[in-house]
Amino acid sequence: MHSFFDQVWNVETLLRRPIDPASFPETRAFEAALCDCFGVREAIAVSSGTSALHCALAALSIGPGDELLVPALAVVMSIAPVLYVGATPVFVDITPGRIDFDYADLERKITPRTKAILPVYLWGAAYTMPRLMEVATQYGLAVVEDACQAHGSTWSDRALGTWGKVGCFSMRDGKLIATGEGGFLLTNDPHIAAFCRAFRTHWGTPGDPQRSYQRLGQNYRLSEPLAWMGRQQVEHFAQILAHRRWQTRFLQEGVLGLSGITVYQHEPEEHPNGFSPLLFLDKTLVGRQIARRLAEQGVPNSVGTFGLRPAHEWPLFAASLTEPVQTPHAQHLLSRMLALSLLPQYTAEDLLRIINIIKSILEEEI
């Protein structure tokens, strides 16, 4: 599984290279590998998934006075870049029992100030992509995809992160492509790509110094060692993806038949990457309590370990809310869902231990 890390790589040689502001060979090779892997024209490596989202919004000239439609079922890091550019997040509820927008709620919240839709593919689960793109086209809105957990997930064999104007990915620990920290953007728009490459380097334009530093940028570069690590994984991505899907399938099959629990059912057109086994508890059980107990027993999960809640409930976004936000479907889903966090090194023995812990806790709660 980890054979691609067994290669000998001379870090000292890399660090001793002559300083050349126009030469990032490992980054360029990594970006080329991403283009081949995902079938897009442009890939831009950056320092995190959050910086990828910030780059994307800035490239689309989204700023003060603009609104973005965002899911209530999202993590803080997905929505914070909306505030970075001075825009306003407008929180949308989900379809009952689904990881997708409530499209009636979405359309109700479109105003003349709405500039984009930002779907967040938590746990590698897809939205109903044709419906999402139909709404975006009808109202002339850009789609910026947060695919930070969705490396390799597809809808009708088309990768998530390649449907909208730009797709944003994270490479933090736990992702299918993981370099400790890091991220990247995918797009078929050369203008967006050129903007993001300048934006990630303080608006420096190597090879054309006369155009450098004409506007404010950021330090969002990905380091060359991390770019090398990322490329090794992209070149073995089919193996990584198959392993994660096996882990998730093994765990889900292991809990089938347990009283009080069911497995999330994806749509027929959807092929998730297996980022996280998604389990539903019966409504009679206390979901958040069980999630916390799992975390206490060494089984990390989104709700019990990371405190996932509807994003608009965090104090960070209070100032952006002009009226109370009601998202009952997102609340209900999180009260019943166990979204388990996996690591690539988990073996069948590790997964059986998790299954037995879930079984033990359920027997005590019922």
Question: Would you give an account of this structure?
Answer:
This protein is α/β, with parallel strands linked by helices and 366 residues long. It has 2 domains: 3-237, Type I PLP-dependent aspartate aminotransferase-like (Major domain) (Aspartate Aminotransferase, domain 2), CATH 3.40.640; 238-365, Alpha-Beta Complex (Aspartate Aminotransferase, domain 1), CATH 3.90.1150. 37% of the residues lie in helices and 14% in strands. The protein has helices at 11-15, 25-38, 49-59, 76-84, 103-108, 129-139, 190-199, 224-235, 237-255, 287-296, 328-336, 348-365, and strands spanning 42-46, 67-71, 88-92, 114-117, 142-146, 154-155, 158-159, 166-170, 183-187, 261-263, 270-271, 278-281, 337-339. The protein has a 7-stranded mixed β-sheet with strand order 1-9-8-5-4-2-3, sandwiched between helices. A 3-stranded antiparallel β-sheet has the order 7-6-11, with no helix packed on it. A 3-stranded antiparallel β-sheet has the order 10-12-13. Strand 6 and strand 7 form a beta hairpin. Helix 3 (49-59) crosses helix 7 (190-199). The chain is globular and about 70 Å long. Residues 1-8 have low confidence and may be disordered.
